[in-house]
Structures are given as structure tokens and as C-alpha cells.
């Protein structure tokens, strides 16, 4: 196995294990065993667990942004449909049997008090999502930044509710509230 293959195997395994079990519950030995690499190779590619966590979160961010963009693109050019597509994306994600909530919020909850790098990665991800919502709303909508913030909060709250309550309908409830906000803003 070459270095790229080993790196991919480690990251895919770490992403799965951290998401299933939590960041703190998965040690380097368990990761090495599951990934099928030597401890020497693991530490050669990732000198610390913090390096793996950072790489996993970077990977997760790309996956999230790509999936969200694909769903928004399917909505076409209609601004209302594009804003609401965020909630359609959440609805599909919440029924996935592997859904365990937002990996970034989980990392924040477990590691942000002891790892400033993780805290910054999570802040950056959430700020990027906020910028995405601002772009979807557009600059010409009255109160657009406020609407973007409200839609972001609905999306974030739906993720937490769906994960904690095991209730995928949180996406539909958030979407219904978003429709009211969006329709009001577009009518103004």
C-alpha cells in the first residue's frame, strides 16, 4: 500500500469511527487496527491525533459543502427554491441510517475546550455556512443578512434536534419556518 492509499484508508476509517463513537473514544491503536496500517505508518503520516482530527474535519467540510452545493444546484435559478434546498438536503441527511448529527458540533463539544485548533476549524466551518446562506439569500433582499442568520439558525437547530431526538422530521419543521421567513422577505 502506497502513502496516498494509507492516508486515505486512515482518514476514511477515522472519519467513520469518530462519527460513530466520538473523538475521545477512539484511540490511535483502535484506529491503526481498523485501518489496517502499522502504528509506525500511522504516526509517520499523522504525528498526532490532533493532526488526524484536523484532517478528518477538513475532509468532512468538503463533503458537506459539495453535497449542499449539489442540492442547491438542483433547485435551479429560483432563489426561493435555492434557499429552501438547504432544508431538503438536511431532510435527506437525517434519514441516513448513519446520521449522528453534525460532526463539527460533536468535535466542538468533545475537544474545543482543550484543542484551540479544533475550535477554530469548527468556527471556520460554521462561518463558511453562514456565508453560503448570505450568498443564497442575495444582497438585494431587504434584511438579507438577518434572513441568512435566521435560516442558518434553523438549519443548525434542526441538525441538533434530529441528532438528539432521533427525529428526522426536524428538517421539515425547520423548512416550514424557513418558508415563512423567506416568503416574507421576498415579498418586502
TrEMBL record:
Residues 27-46 bind DNA. Coiled coil: none annotated. Keywords: DNA-binding, Transcription, Transcription regulation. Pfam families: TetR_C_13, TetR_N. Residues 4-64 form the HTH tetR-type domain. It comes from the Bacteria. Gene3D superfamilies: Tetracycline Repressor, domain 2. This is TetR/AcrR family transcriptional regulator. It comes from Brachybacterium rhamnosum. The lineage of its organism: Bacteria, Bacillati, Actinomycetota, Actinomycetes, Micrococcales.
